[in-house]
Amino acid sequence: MLSHYHWDHVADLGCLQYAARVLMDLGKRRHPLDIYAHGEDENIQRLDYLKYCHGHTIDEKTSLRLGGLRFTFSRNEHTDPCFSMRIENRDRVLVYIADTGWTDALVRIANRADLLLCEASLYDEFQGRIPGHLTAGEAGKIAAIAGVQHLVLTHLPHFGDHKELIRQAGRTFPGKIELAQTDQTWQW
Questions:
Q1: Which helix (H) or strand (E) holds 21?
Q2: How far is the C-alpha of 87 from the C-alpha of 65, rounded, in Å?
Q3: 32 is in which domain, residue-wise?
Q4: What's the pLDDT score for residue 117?
Q5: Which domain-ending residue is among 42, 57, 72?
Q6: Fewest CB atoms within 10 A around its CB: which of 4, 14, 137, 177?
């Protein structure tokens, strides 16, 4: 499931597709890898890889059932088409807000989420200076208005003290806040 095609979000896609090929050729995988992303430009063509991978388009009207999960999507305000996703499993909700500027749609997709993974590319003092990205304070505001239980800040800046992001998000969101980390998992 891809939010958009910027390199920092798809850098491992080719390796993943090649791994699907190797596993199918060795008989360790029986079905092609399904990859979901928007079809608003020519990038969708890169998702198909011989018989090993199949690309499928998503948009804000898409509702998918994969296994026991239901996926819905919301269009973001970004430099290129980009989508956030809501993943529901019975009574539990995980929301991933990908690269975006503020829109009220973010509050709607995050409504009552148990876990919200939200991009926080900017410290609050950079608000409005880099279009298509949220500040930590805006991520906290989304979580507070939406009634989220647990906020994880992701897509973090490449500089500064990341603990400050938690403080900034916490000015409006009183719930649990943490920074995304490599290999981190959550029970939801």
A1: helix 13-25
A2: 10
A3: 1-57
A4: 98
A5: 57
A6: 14
